[in-house]
Amino acid sequence: MSWASRKLLINFVSDMSSRTRSHPLDRLEVSERGFQPPTDIYETADEIVVRMELAGIDPADIELWVDEDAGRLTVRGRRDDPAGSEQRRYYNVEIECGPFVRVVQLPRPVASEAAAASYAEGFLTVRLPKREIQYGSPRNVPIQ
To answer: Which of 57, 105, 120, 125 has its CB surrounded by the most CB atoms within 10 Å?
Structure first.
């Protein structure tokens, strides 16, 4: 599958699944969400790591928060067009500018109070320590 086809499919699935969720940012229309920065999500022995490509964005212009109850990390920011108001004749445009909101569903519970974020060489890296999953003991439920 070509990259263009893959991106179209990913955006379609993301758009369709967001219509069924209750998080307010999930209901934003595509034009309001802006572009979707490429994101890697992986797990180590101790943490969930979210790595997002945000080249050209001042870290002071990036907001992020974790909603533990919903199991989501939300990243919001804006990449300004380096041309500003200058008129240019483009032959190819692949670098997306403007606002973005990226909501990442986390694969397991995390300890948001111990989360740490860093920005280096155009990448935002958010480290979220895993929270122990505590299962209750099975219990008998009487039928009345």
So the answer is: 57
